């Protein structure tokens, strides 16, 4: 669903006495905002109906449309943070419907950060490593970081070795662990929704 960007306007309802202060475009957005709010309520009711009828694919479709409307509504009301979160949710997982999107994003993010780790290991003064061994160690560390929530990273690397890594490598490793948990959650959510549809 595509909506034009709304003009800036106050979030509170406009009183009749102050009507002359606002441009026609403002009134147009107020009308559009009311329509958005009505659409959101309609999609919520349709989503509940589809849930009752066990039509999970249609339920997810109406949920996605509800989120798209809320994204536009939040942006128009100046709630940029909420709009951004919903936009990211849609882009990264198609609102919980896609397994491929979070999987691809996880591979891209972890691979890129692994290359960053390899670069740091290659040019760190103590001890410098050839590029290919550094890249191999970086991907091994990335794999270990991905499994870190299972508390088995120590099975891949000596804890003392991990403590001696450069600070930037440790920070990127922490980011990889968080990113892995985040994308794994999105993948699991999409798989759950897919199994519900069958």
Structural overview:
The chain has 198 residues and is mainly α. The chain folds into 2 domains: 16-93, no CATH class; 100-197. It is 71% helix and 0% strand. The longest helix is centred in the last third of the chain and has 31 residues, at 167-197. Residues 1-16 have low confidence and may be disordered.
Break the fold down into its secondary structure elements and pairings.
Elements: H1 24-52, H2 56-76, H3 80-93, H4 100-123, H5 131-146, H6 159-163, H7 167-197
Number of helices: 7
Quick one: how many beta strands? 0
Mean pLDDT: 77
Low-confidence spans: 1-16
Morphology: elongated
Whole-Å distance between the termini? 26 Å
Whole-angstrom Rg: 24 Å
Our estimate of the beta-strand percent is under 5%
Structural class: mainly alpha
